[in-house]
Structure formats: C-alpha cells, structure tokens
Amino acid sequence: MFKKLLLAAALTCGAAHAATNPLFAPLYTADPAVLVDGGRVYLFTGRDEAQPGGKDFVMHEWRVFSSCDMVTWQDHGVPLNVKTFAWAKARAWASDIVKRDGKYWFYSTVEHATVPGFAVGVAVSDSPTGPFKDARGSALITNDMTTQTDIAWDDIDPGVFLDDDGQAYLYWGNTVLKYAKLKANMTELDGPIQVLPVKDFVEAPYLHKRKVGGKAMYYLSYSEFFPEQTAYLTGPSPTGPWTPRGVIMAKNLKTPTIHQAIFDFNGKSYIAYHNAELPGGGEYRRSVAIEEFEYREDGTMPFIPQTKTGPRANPSAACKR
Ligand code: FUB
Description:
Elements: H1 2-12, E1 16-18, E2 29-37, E3 40-47, E4 61-67, E5 72-75, E6 80-81, E7 88-90, E8 95-100, E9 103-112, E10 118-125, E11 133-134, E12 159-162, E13 168-172, E14 177-182, E15 194-196, E16 201-212, E17 215-224, E18 229-235, E19 243-249, E20 261-265, E21 268-275, E22 287-293
Antiparallel strand pairs: 1-5, 2-3, 3-4, 4-5, 4-6, 7-9, 8-9, 9-10, 10-11, 12-13, 13-14, 14-15, 16-17, 17-18, 18-19, 20-21, 21-22
The structure holds beta-L-arabinofuranose (FUB).
Beta-L-arabinofuranose binds next to strand 2 and strand 16.
InterPro entries: Glyco_hydro_43, Glyco_hydro_beta-prop_sf, Glycosyl_Hydrlase_43_Enz
GO molecular function, one term: hydrolase activity
Signal peptide: 1-18
C-alpha cells in the first residue's frame, strides 16, 4: 500500500525545488500567475525555450508548481500548451487563473491561427494542476475586437478577477489597458470592452483586492515604460475611479519585461515577477522569482526590492499535501 502511494505521488508530481530566487532552475520561466487554493499556493508560469542569443520569445507551454510553505516547490509539469486551443498557432504568453464553482479557469495569451494577431483563450479544469481543456472552442478576445491601436499584440496579458459579489472581470492589453465584465459562465464577455486610460501603461494588468480599515481597496498593478517597471493604482471598486500610487518594483537589468502577480498566502503578502538572473538568462530566457512584503497601514504598497534569498519559510497548516 505504502509503495503504491509513493508511486502515485511520483507520477502526479515532479521534482521538488527548494527556493532561492530565481526559482525553478534549470527551467527558464516567465509571466507568473498565482492561485491560492486548499491552503496551497499554485504558481503558473510560461516557459522560455529560446536558445542562448535567441532574438524572440519561444514559448509553447504553461507550467504549474505548488508550495505549502513558499520555500519548497513541487513541479506538476505542463497542465496545458498552445495545442490545447485548436484555433491557436503559437506563443504561450502570459496567463492568469481563478477558481469559480469548483472549477479552475485559466485565461491565456496565444497567437491566433486565422485572425491576424494575438488573442485570449480560456481553458477549464477540475484541478489546478490540470489537465485543462478549451472552455469555448474559440478565442474569447481576438485582435479585431479592439481598434485603439493597430499593433498585433495589443490583446495580450489577461488578468482575471472574481469579486465577492460574484461578478468577474477580465483586464488585458498592451499599450492600451482594456477590461470587460465576464458572464457567470466565465467564457463570455458580459457587456462592452472598456478602455482605461493609464499613462505610460505597457502590459501585465493585474487586479487584487484587500480590506483596509474595514473598506475594500482594489489594486490595479501593471508594467509601465520599456524596459518595464511595476506600478499600481488603487480604487474603491474594480472599475475605479483610480488613484496612481507609484512604482513598486524597479526594472530588470537583463530583460526589459517584469510581469507581476500579487497575492496573500498563510497570513503574508507576496509578489511574483520575473527577471533574468539564472545563469544563461536574458531577454528571452527569464526566471520567475518571489518577494515577501508588508502593506503600509493605509493600505498602500511599499517599493519592493528584488532579492536573491526570496521569501522566508511560511508553512501552512491548512495545506492539503
Ligand atoms: O512572455 C511574453 C510577454 O512578455 C508577456 O505576455 C508580457 O507580459 C511580457 O512578459
């Protein structure tokens, strides 16, 4: 019996990675997305497969890792890849995930096979570690649905947020930040696409929420300028009005992108992001890292330096192992 359990564990989970920043060597990973579920933190990443000296992103799949303590990470492999979306042809770029009604909804950037440009797809699974299947059989957002710019990659980087009242929102974009409500089925937009004018916005919009002094505070973080730094706004609702709050993480030295996800786990607050600090790293060979931080009393976020040590151990008693 014991042997069977060990074998099952070995088949479902890969090697454990002990944390120091950046994470997950020897894999190059990017664009973190985070879900805390069952007392465990699940960290989704894209995988950079470019060769040394490569001149573009080579990204075919998303990976998922999990931890009960922010220090030891279990590698769960590849829960989905570009081929999960039959209508897509390439480029497994940034993603985000949310749980609703016991299902896990994964929104991701891909390049569309027939509608020129990038698109956003949605996949669904009964487990955070997959496998995921295409939830629509078609793209949720295509490049021809937005006309504010004529660039092919302005519909990338979905950030999904489910509010306590059951309304879900999708934020996305490059150069122009857009958002829309999602229907309760999580596979259709519920109303028009809205544009949010944010000065110097580049990409990676991400919404999270906390209670501050008994009131809800919404945080909309994103990458600004290029090379990118991480900045954020706060507001009293998922649609604002927004107050600019400044920079929380400085630009990277070895890659112009940074792409954050911000979350709480077991009573502490964290930001996941990528740099290119693994040996052999570079613009197209990035690495996900995590920092712990504390909000100020008024709910604002501090400037968060990147470290090589990463978070301290934070073992969760609630973690389903
Ligand atoms: O990883 C490809 C792209 O680079 C992402 O979609 C952006 O957020 C940037 O990290």
